[in-house]
Structure formats: structure tokens, C-alpha cells
Amino acid sequence: MRKERKEIRKVEYKDLFIADDGTEFASEDECRKYEESAIFAVQKIVDKLPKQITENIADCDPFCAFSYDDNMIAYKVRNLDDIEAINQWLRIKFRCGGDKISDGVFLGTDALGTIQLFCVYDYDNAVWHVGTPEKLKADFARAIDLFCNELVEKTEEGEKP
Question: Is residue 147 part of a domain?
Fold first, then answer.
């Protein structure tokens, strides 16, 4: 008589239900509810808008205005339907530490024909409206001016910068 050890592999299968946008769910009911939800419908509309995505914008930001895992999305606002879709998207996804949404984050008709920038926080799936590229440049220029002025003041007062 001899004794042998044989390896037996057991294959298990797990059913996943995948929404049209690729989100996975353990149950068909959860998946169906998600696909019928407002966020899914609005996200589908917004995803069809012309856009440009820049990953890890922080690599270009010396003042760390964005955290490392944030992305910037630029949308070209072509018409009133685009404005309404983006505003619905912001209403649903905009979060800032649980604070109420301020009215200033939504697009108005003055956004027609412009490029609007949005910062997407990957870690909590939130969105922040930044504004036009010109506004972003002006904000950076202001931040640089403030930073330089503080350095000059500290140097003039004899402090180490």
C-alpha cells in the first residue's frame, strides 16, 4: 500500500451584476436601482459632453491646491442642455465636507461657449467647480503674488522665509 497526496482545486463562481457604466453589484436589484437612479442618468448625459481629462493635476501645482489623486476635467459648454446636465451632475455629486452647496458653483448662461473646469476628488467621488481656464490662471497668479509678498515681508522684517 502506498499513500499519495493529491491536490484538489475547487472553483467557485460568484455572480456579479454590472451596470452600463461598469459599476459592479452583488444583486440584480441593487444594480437595477442604481441604473434607475438620478446619478446614473445624469452621469450618462455628462459623459457624452466633449471633455478633456487631466490626471494628477497636482504634478503641475506648486501650491498643492489639489490633492495628489485629484483630476481636472474640462467641458466645452455648447448649449443650454449642456448647462442643465452639468448643473444636475453638480447638484448630485458636489460635496464639500458635508456643507451645503453654495449657489456659486452652478453654471449660468454666461458659461455658453466657454470651457469650464471641474476638479474631481477620486477618494470620495465628489466634484468641485473651478471655473474657466482664465479664472484658474488668475487664481494661481493671485496665490503666487500672495506667497511672494509674504516672503518679501518676512525677509524685510528679518525673519527667515
Answer: yes
Burial of 117 (0-12, 13-18, 19+ CB in 10 A): buried
Contacts 24+ apart (CB under 8 A), 1-9: none
Q: Kindly give, in sequence order, each residue whose CB lies less than 8 Å from that of residue 125, ignoring residues fewer than 6 positions away.
A: 93
Rounded to an integer, what is the distance from CA 78 to the centroid of its chain? Answer: 21
- Rounded to the nearest 10 degrees, the angle between the axes of helix 28-36 and helix 38-47 is 60
Residues 78 and 89 occupy one common structural domain: yes
Residues 79 and 152 in one domain: yes
Dump pLDDT digits (tens) for 20-72: 767 889 999 998 888 778 777 887 888 888 887 766 554 555 445 444 446 77
So what's the pLDDT on residue 77? 92
Q: What angle do CA 28, 31, 36 make, to 5 degrees?
A: 125
- Structural domain of residue 151, as residue ranges? 50-156
* Cα(153)–Cα(159) distance, integer angstroms: 9
Do residues 42 and 58 share a domain? no
Same domain? For 101 and 72 the reply is: yes
